[in-house]
Amino acid sequence: MYITCLDLEGVLVPEIWIAFSEATGIPELKKTTRDEPDYDKLMKYRIGILKEHGLGLKEIQDTIATIDPMPGAKEFLDELRGLCQTIILSDTFTEFAGPLMKKLGMPTIFCNSLEVSESGEVTGYKMRVENSKLTTVKALQSIGYDTIASGDSFNDLGMIQASKAGFLFRSTEAIKKEYPQYPAFETYDELLSAIKAELRK
Length: 201
What we know:
By secondary structure, this protein is an alpha/beta fold. The chain contains nine helices and seven strands; from the N terminus they run βααααβαββαβαβαβα.
């Protein structure tokens, strides 16, 4: 029995922080897990910039409301969910994900949560579990599932490495060069074909 685990940002939807960086004109917010492998360091950096500019959850959510899934993402996800159970494993936050999940047809997502003050200031964040993507894949395997995983960033490598089959999707040249053992795809058709081939084994 297979479960496919997919990253969200950069795979199914555009990077939320990049979109917010463009909306606010703050280039420092463009940094993502493709650039910084240490997620705690990255989030503390982001929270510091939000505080410096007086920006809170509402401003981020206003930007998220304008974001649509990548072209073809919903169709890809619909077809994949017809083939096997599929879970989105993301280091984003429940406060960000809701509107995007509606646009994707309400797939299952496991993600984290933000700590927000009464005034709407983002003061911190809470990880659902440490190394959430890898930990979740191992937990699924412990209850009898084989996992297939795909993502684009450093924080996806754990679940890709631990899965029966793992694929990079629209990743950076640096990551592809460092991890040549994982097939790297640029289109949903390529990724779907690779997953179908694994399901047939």
